[in-house]
Amino acid sequence: HDAMGWFFRQATRAGHKLPTDAPELCEKALMGIAYSIKEEDIPSELFINLDQTQMVYAPGSTVTWTPSGTKQVAVVGDDEKRAVTIVVAVSNSGTLLPFQVIFKGATERSCLRLEAASFDKCKDAGMKFEPSKTDTYWSTIDTMKKHISEIVVPYFEEQKRRLRLSDDQK
Question: To the nearest 10°, the Cα dihedral for 99, 101, 107, 109?
Fold first, then answer.
């Protein structure tokens, strides 16, 4: 690219802003969590943090090669990116639970193909591949229910057996 004088360029936009009372909100949340863990005797293995994140695996045309000094960078197909939502959960004891990967589409055919590289390794690790059954790849109440029933609940049940806890352990 140096010989041609071209440079990799990317569109920019304003970032997300935190609320002005973010430190107070975080402290209140932390105190509520600590109180619940102590008062309910919740072991570290049964306390998990769960989040969802977008993973772009084909960025579409939001980036392109262009000659150095170009003031306007036009892109075609900006709306054609390929992405998924990944639901990630980790226990306070450090156990990473299997991922749930949500694809845009109505059926299993929308998800990762069986022939994909490392598909078997992902399935063996307990990963779940779900169609959103919508026109986006975003998580829905149905995909969250599946995550809880197929990933979180079995994990909790195994930890309760391993720790010799009662079935009604919080």
Answer: -100
SS3 letters across 102-143: EECECCHHHCCCCCCCCHHHHHHCCCEEEECCECCCCCCHHH
DSSP secondary structure letter of residue 101 = E
- One-letter amino acid of 48: I
> 3-class SS at 11?
coil
Task: Look up residue 141 and give its two tokens.
Answer: 């109440």
pLDDT tens digits, residue range 106-145? Answer: 777 777 777 778 888 988 999 999 999 998 889 999 999 9
Query: For residue 70, what are its two tokens?
Result: 């170009």
User: Tokens representing 34?
Assistant: 């600590």
Query: Residue 159 contacts by C-beta under 8 Å, 6 or more apart in sequence?
Result: 43, 45, 46, 91, 165
